[in-house]
Recover the amino acids of this structure.
């Protein structure tokens, strides 16, 4: 009877040890998973920061391009006004030339 009790206790202890080892192995995997997640989060944050910087730079370039476009549009408008005035001046000069010939 004592022998059975000892064997039973021994089997129970072996089972407990086995479960403990499995638990420790599971915990080790969990820590490895946490480390991997932390690494991936850090990499993601670096990528996000890099993309944000690129976006900021692109927005500055876009703002500069818009300003340049407005300047060009203003210049075109001024040139169109000059061309219109030159056409009028040319028409007036042509009319005066015709009148002078008569």
């Amino acid at each position: 009877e004592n022998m059975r009790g000892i064997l039973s206790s021994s089997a129970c202890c072996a089972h407990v040890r086995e479960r403990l080892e499995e638990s420790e192995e599971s915990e080790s995997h969990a820590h490895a998973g946490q480390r991997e997640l932390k690494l991936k989060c850090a990499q993601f944050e670096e990528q996000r920061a890099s993309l944000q910087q690129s976006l900021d730079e692109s927005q500055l370039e876009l703002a500069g391009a818009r300003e340049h476009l407005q300047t060009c549009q203003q210049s075109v408008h001024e040139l169109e006004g000059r061309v219109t005035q030159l056409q009028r001046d040319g028409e007036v000069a042509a009319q005066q030339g015709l009148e002078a010939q008569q």
The chain is about 100% helix and 0% strand. The CA atoms of residues 66 and 72 lie 10 Å apart. The chain has a mean pLDDT of 88.
